[in-house]
Every structure is written in C-alpha cells, then in structure tokens.
Specification:
The structure holds two protein chains of two kinds. By secondary structure, chain A is mostly helical. Chain A has helices at about 5-25, 30-40, 50-90, 95, 110-115. The chains are: A mainly alpha, B mainly alpha. Chains A and B meet through α1 and α2 of A and α1, α2, α3, α4 and α5 of B.
C-alpha cells in the first residue's frame, strides 16, 4: 500500500467524521442567539479560576485596608507627638533656657572675639 | 458587523468541526468554545487585522478560546484529559451511514491518543483541507515543525487505526 493510498484512506475517514459531525451541529443563528442572550443577561459563567482569583483579590484588598487602618493612625500619632514636643520646647521658657551642665567645658577664652565683630575706633589714634 | 456575522456563518460548519477537534470530540464543550469565540469576534475583543485569511485567523481565535477552556477545566479537574470511547458523544447524522459513524468513532478515539499538535495538524490538513503552512500559522509554529508533527502524527495514526481493525 503506497503512502498516497494511505493518505487517501485517512482522508476518507476524516470525510466520514465531517459528515457525522455535521449531524448534530447547532445552527449558526441558534448559537448566536444563545450567545447574545447570555451576554445580555450577563450570565457568562465565572470560571473556578476567575472565582479563585476574585476571592484572593478581595482577601488581599481587605488585608491591605486593615493594615492601612492600623499603620496610618500610628504614623500620624508619632508625627503628632513630635510636633507637640517641638511646640512645647519652643513655648516653654524653662525648656528653652535649659543648658547642659557640661556646656561650660566648651567655653574657651576668646569666644567673645570669635563670635562678635570688634569695633575699631579710628579717632582714638 | 453584519459582514462579520456573514463571514462567521459561512465558516460555521468548518469552525464547529475545528472546535470539536480542539475539545477532543466533546460536543457540548465545543459549542461553548465556539459560542465564546463568536462573542469575542462580534464583540470586538478579537480583531481581524487582515494579515492572514479570515478562516486562518478565526481558527486561531477558536484554538485560543479552546485552550483557555481546557486549561480552566484542567485546573478545576472536572474532566480527564484523555477520553474513553464511551465518553465521546456523537450523534449520527441522518445522512451519514452506520459505517461512517463507526469510522468516525474509530478515528476520534485514535486521534484522542495522539499528542495535541499532531492531532491538530492532521485535522487541519485532512478534515479542513488546509495546507501545512496554513496549519502552521493557526498553530503558531514554523512550517518545519508542523510538517514534523504531520508526518509523525500520520504514522502514529496509521498504527493506532491498524490496531483497532
């Protein structure tokens, strides 16, 4: 049996399959109508994978929202406390006048000359 | 829109045969796949760019939709990939003889035992009367690869059909 003959036999089998397939083929109009109906009503089934993805997305969104609710107030509280401390430091005379006991060690002779501008009186010469 | 529907209607029988092949002969699933493919085309989610013939492009869309359905089903483990003869739901065409129905069943069962690519290229060439180059375009592979799948598939199919006879 030649290869061509065998191809012919295969083709005959496929032809038979084509005729059998055509037997129960839904009409194009019916298929289009059911497709349109499903589209209009919105009854396109949600696949398991999509359902799974949707559930996970919802769970992640909920977790993110809870995290935000917990973290953001804490951050705001930290900022508020810092601002309050700065305001208190600026307004309280006691805190503003406070000096470290070791500040005196940093004072050197001639500090006044370095920090001030000496005035030169030309008339005294 | 009407022009697109007219083109789809003209290719309906061939498209249904291709959808059946992509779904391993499961008729209900093939109808779902074809319906989804039509919705994509008519709804504009799949746009024909004119780079190939409309039939080649449409078959590519159907193949893609079938692949998505099959992957979803595999994930859900609702269906087995390999089907037994009893699962193949074939309704005889009043115009088809009993011998043709038997031959079709035998062929469908043998094709189900082939790798997907071999099954696809054989269907496109023998059932749809396409060239290997057209089959390659639909399958998204090179002509050389398609030819290899074609030759291997043909040889394997002959063996499988010989076992059954």
């Amino acid at each position: 049996m030649s290869d061509r003959m065998q191809d012919g036999e295969l083709r005959a089998l496929f032809d038979a399959q084509r005729r059998v397939d055509a037997g129960d083929m839904p009409s194009f109009a019916d298929m289009l109508a059911s497709a349109s109906a499903a589209h209009d009503v919105g009854v396109v089934p949600i696949s398991g994978r999509h359902r799974w993805r949707r559930e996970w997305t919802g769970a992640l969104a909920a977790a993110a929202a809870v995290t935000a609710l917990i973290v953001i107030p804490r951050l705001q509280t930290g900022d508020d406390e810092f601002e309050r401390a700065v305001r208190e430091f600026e307004t309280s005379p006691a805190l503003g006048a406070w000096q470290s006991p070791t500040d005196a060690l940093l004072r050197l002779p001639g500090d006044a000359l370095l920090s001030g501008v000496p005035s030169v009186e030309l008339e005294s010469r | 829109m009407m022009d697109m529907e007219a083109q789809l209607e003209r290719l309906h029988a061939e498209s249904f045969g291709w959808a059946l092949s992509c779904c391993g002969g499961e008729r209900a699933r093939a109808e779902d796949v074809l319906q989804s493919a039509y919705m994509r085309v008519i709804g504009g989610r799949a746009v024909y760019g004119g780079r190939s013939t409309f039939r080649t492009w449409l078959f590519g869309v159907i193949r893609r939709v079938a692949w998505e359905h099959n992957r979803r089903d595999r994930t859900e483990q609702r269906r087995t990939v390999r089907m037994e003869d009893s699962q193949l739901h074939q309704v005889a065409d009043p115009g088809a003889s009993a011998a043709e129905v038997d031959a079709s069943r035998m062929l469908t069962a043998a094709l189900a035992r082939l790798p997907e690519r071999q099954r696809e290229v054989l269907h496109l060439v023998f059932y749809q009367d396409m060239s290997i180059a057209e089959a390659a375009e639909i399958m998204g592979i090179s002509v050389g690869s398609a030819r290899t799948h074609y030759e291997r598939g043909k040889a394997r199919l002959r063996v499988l059909l010989g076992e059954r006879e």
